[in-house]
Design brief:
This protein is α/β, with parallel strands linked by helices and about 350 residues long. It folds into three domains: about 160 residues, 3-Layer(aba) Sandwich (Rossmann fold); about 100 residues, Orthogonal Bundle (Helix Hairpins); about 60 residues, Regulator of K+ conductance, C-terminal domain (Alpha-Beta Plaits). The protein is built from twelve helices and 14 strands. The strands form three sheets. The chain has a seven-stranded mixed beta sheet with strand order 1-7-6-5-8-9-10, with helices on both faces. Strands 11-14-12-13 form a four-stranded antiparallel beta sheet. A three-stranded antiparallel beta sheet has the order 3-2-4. Helix 8 links the parallel strand 8 and strand 9. The protein is elongated, with a radius of gyration of 32 Å. The relative contact order is 0.07. The N terminus is likely disordered.
Length: about 350
């Protein structure tokens, strides 16, 4: 597969396996140096144990027909050629006991030695087969999931918020051309797709056509627009939320297919100004944006106990109702009030955030 979709500054750490597959499922990192050292240690241990066994029974081994003349070096030599199945035949067991030890002890050690020697190849083949199988199963099962395109500060924050609100990690897929970003996603237990979200084949790998929602969290507005256009072309039903740095680009993003647009730079500037003009109001807004500080804004369906009561009565339970959603229509505080809550209504409320682990 061509690598031209990966920026040059991100190519160095991309393995051929990652590039070929694109899909990086969560896995525990293993140090290659430790694996190699462990295998070398096992091979040397098998070699030394075999040499010691042969040397202990040196009286039962003949070297070119002469019995009882084996040195430890000869025993080590016999162990090496025997475990590697070379078998020159110049040294051979002549007693039944020595031959029995060869069958019962040295033969299993030979198997162990050979497994260690070819272990890297076997592991590569089995690992690749296992990963391909996992990816095949993942492609079949993943649907109604969330795709996050871009995994910088905004993307990671969105992923953490989704997880905090009960979205399963297996239902979040990250798309980024940044190899360190893929590593961050895997450490969080998320599936990572290595590639440029502007390319249709990359979003197809992420299953955008079967996704429930897409978060566009790239760092450049022009990239966000192209990503949104591509995602919308793949699915007319998926909910797309995109961030934009410059407010005047928000309308372009909406025309490109975004359902909601978040102006990040202008929102941050407004919040900073609010914190200076009205410190308490600014602090309250920080609480609402950071659920770890005590408050959160959520949308939820009404409960059975709330059926038939007024939104004002819900406020008495400790939650503050900001809006009622009925049949896709949002009735905010400044809209004509909803008199009684009905089945299938949803509420947007401010409430105490549950404690996070």
């Amino acid at each position: 597969m061509a690598r031209n979709w990966i920026p040059d500054r991100f190519r160095a750490d991309i393995t051929e396996e990652e590039e070929a597959s694109l899909i990086n499922l969560p896995a525990r990192d293993v140090t290659p140096v430790l694996q190699i050292m462990l295998r070398i240690g096992i091979a040397l241990a098998a070699l030394v144990v075999t040499a010691l066994i042969v040397f202990a029974e040196r009286g039962c081994y003949a070297d070119r027909g002469v019995t009882g003349t084996l040195t430890f070096v000869d025993a080590l030599y016999y162990a090496a050629v025997s475990l590697s199945t070379t078998g020159y035949g110049d040294i051979a067991p002549v007693c039944e006991s020595a031959r029995l030890v060869n069958v019962v002890v040295i033969t299993p050690l030979r198997f162990l030695f050979l497994i260690v020697l070819i272990g890297t190849t076997v592991e590569v083949l089995t690992t690749r087969t296992r990963l391909n199988y996992r990816r095949k199963i993942w492609r079949k099962k993943v649907h109604e999931h969330t795709v996050i395109i871009g995994f910088g500060v905004k993307g990671r924050s969105a992923a953490r918020k989704l997880i905090d609100n009960g979205i399963a990690k297996s239902q979040i897929v990250v798309v980024t051309p940044d190899t360190p970003g893929i590593g961050d996603a895997k450490r969080m237990g998320l599936v990572g797709i290595l590639g440029d979200g502007r390319r249709e084949e990359i979003l197809e790998e992420a299953g955008v056509a079967r996704a429930k929602q897409v978060i566009v969290a790239t760092n450049e507005d022009d990239t966000s627009i192209l990503v949104t256009l591509t995602a919308r072309r793949l699915s007319t039903e998926v909910e797309i939320v995109a961030s934009v740095r410059e407010g005047h680009n928000a309308s372009i993003l909406r025309q490109s297919g975004a359902n909601n647009v978040i102006p990040t730079a202008e929102s941050a500037g407004s919040l900073m100004a609010l914190s200076l003009i009205s410190p308490e109001a600014g602090d309250l807004m920080e609480d609402l944006l950071d659920s770890n500080r005590g408050l959160e804004i959520v949308q939820r369906p009404i409960t059975k106990d709330e059926l038939g009561i007024t939104p004002t009565e819900v406020n008495s339970t400790g939650e503050i109702v900001l809006a009622v959603i009925r049949g896709g229509t949002v009735s905010r505080l400044n809209s004509p009030p909803i008199r009684l809550l009905e089945k299938e209504d949803h509420l947007v409320v401010i409430r105490d955030a549950p404690p996070r682990p």
